[in-house]
Specification:
The protein is of the alpha+beta class. Helix content is 23%, strand content 22%.
Length: 461
């Protein structure tokens, strides 16, 4: 058996360092393929790193709380059967940001056991949405050719049935690891779900996002967060790092660089609510999430065409007016606020936009949002209504000139044709960079948004 050091991988975000949050193994532990080794935090998210091979933990090379650069050895493992070489990102032939690479074994054909371990790693499941994807941070592998049912039994279709049997020297417990990618493991952790209890339905026996959500729903774990107990200490000190540090830096830069001005208006959104109901009942939108946010997103794209300077960037030397809309959606995740954006919204139909917004939400919730999905935004929406808030004065996302806040939509008394009636009412607010956007433009833009919410038929223009 050979001892190999496992370097901190690039987890597909293009980042250069990460903090070791907590070790999930200790020296002397026997580990199996895809078992979680450690939880790390980057500037974007919290990620669990699974083991690409089986063996015995020899030493933890980095202490919890330490921040290390990508490529730094963090754990040494005595691998089963032979040497398993793991290289830092960029040092091997493959430098892609895929999800899991083949686990290299000694080239000697005599080392069948090590080959079996590598074969186990290669059966890690394809992404349920993107066949052929592999686990974040370990480079790339060839297309997964074998499929396994729950319990590790080979499927009966085609060449997959010819999966190579595992040598007797590999413990039987290695045969059925919990196959789940880091974002799925994180989702399960956030929802309080034990992955061992989840029925996996993936093609290769992997646990999918839908599996976790279904199990969580059945277990009734979707509930409000309980009020935490105060500890014995009078104060708690939380280090400013990772996502929180990135958020703070961006917000301070925006607030003290761009002079903010905010505009508000109340809106009768009854027809928007009726329109949303019709879309939900439409066969074209079957299986697609539809909400008032979809109408607001389309309204922003429409209003930008009428008030182009709100879709701009300031560079000190010039104002860049964007003739396209990369619409950011502020998303609150367990690790903090991120703002991924949907590219070229002006080119999307209502159905295409609905699907894009749904995918954006799922990706953010699963911790899979990539830096490219958060870059080059031109204008942002924050849906504070989802938390029951009526209005607010949001801070502009750095590099943009405006941010729109959609408040909660509630039934309130509203005067219609001289009579007080119950109507669905919301408040639309927006903050603008006053270096770029004058008061009249800001007011017209918000008025245009209100017009669409009052009469969605305007979107047909």
């Amino acid at each position: 058996m050979a001892v190999s050091e496992f370097p901190l991988p690039d987890v597909g975000e293009g980042l250069t360092e990460a903090e070791i949050v907590s070790w999930k193994v200790a020296p002397g532990d026997e580990i199996v393929v895809n078992q979680v080794l450690v939880e790390i935090e980057t500037a974007k998210s919290l990620v669990e790193l699974p083991s690409p091979f089986a063996g015995t933990v020899q030493k933890l090379l980095v202490e919890e709380g330490s921040t290390v650069e990508v490529g730094t050895p963090i754990i040494s493992v005595q691998s089963v059967g032979g040497s398993v070489e793991l290289t830092a990102p960029g040092s091997g032939e493959d430098e892609s940001h895929g999800m899991m690479s083949d686990v290299g074994a000694e080239s000697s054909a005599a080392d069948d056991t090590a080959a079996a371990v590598a074969d186990t790693a290669s059966t890690i499941a394809n992404d349920d949405d993107k066949p052929g994807a592999v686990l974040v941070g370990y480079g790339t592998a060839g297309h997964v050719s074998s499929r396994r049912r729950k319990g590790g039994q080979p499927a009966k279709d085609g060449a997959a049935a010819a999966a190579k049997p595992r040598p007797a020297s590999v413990p039987a417990s290695f045969a059925s690891p919990i196959i789940a990618k880091p974002p799925i493991r994180k989702l399960a952790k956030d929802l309080g779900v034990e992955l061992a209890e989840v029925v996996a339905t993936g093609l290769a026996g992997e646990t999918t996002r839908e599996d976790v959500i279904r199990h969580a729903s059945q277990a009734s774990v979707f509930r409000n967060i309980e009020t935490p107990e105060w500890g014995d200490e009078r104060e708690e000190r939380i280090p400013v790092k990772g996502v929180r540090k990135a958020i703070a830096k961006a917000m301070v830069h925006s607030a003290f660089t761009a002079p903010h001005v905010s505009v508000f208006t109340d809106v009768d959104a009854t027809r928007t609510m009726e329109f949303v109901k019709r879309l939900k009942n439409s066969t074209d939108f079957a299986g697609v999430r539809v909400s008032p946010l979809l109408i607001m997103a389309k309204a922003v794209s429409w209003a930008v065409r009428r008030n182009p300077t709100v879709n701009s960037s300031w560079t000190d030397k010039e104002i860049i007016v964007h003739h396209y809309v990369n619409l950011g959606i502020a998303a609150a995740t367990p690790r903090g606020l991120i703002v991924p954006n949907v590219k070229d919204v002006q080119e999307l139909s209502l159905l295409e936009l609905a699907k894009s917004l749904e995918q954006l939400t799922i990706t953010a919730r699963d911790g899979k949002t990539q830096p490219a999905e958060m870059s080059n935004g031109t204008i942002t929406i924050t849906n504070i209504g989802s938390y029951g808030m009526d209005t607010g004065t949001p801070i502009i996302n750095p590099g943009e000139a405006a941010i729109v806040a959609l408040g909660s939509i509630k039934q309130k008394p509203w005067v219609v044709d001289g009579e007080v009636r119950a109507r669905y009412v919301t408040t639309v607010s927006a903050s603008f960079d006053h270096r770029i956007v004058d008061g009249d433009v800001a007011s017209r833009f918000v008025a245009d948004l209100a017009s669409v919410l009052e009469e969605p038929a305007l979107l047909l223009d």
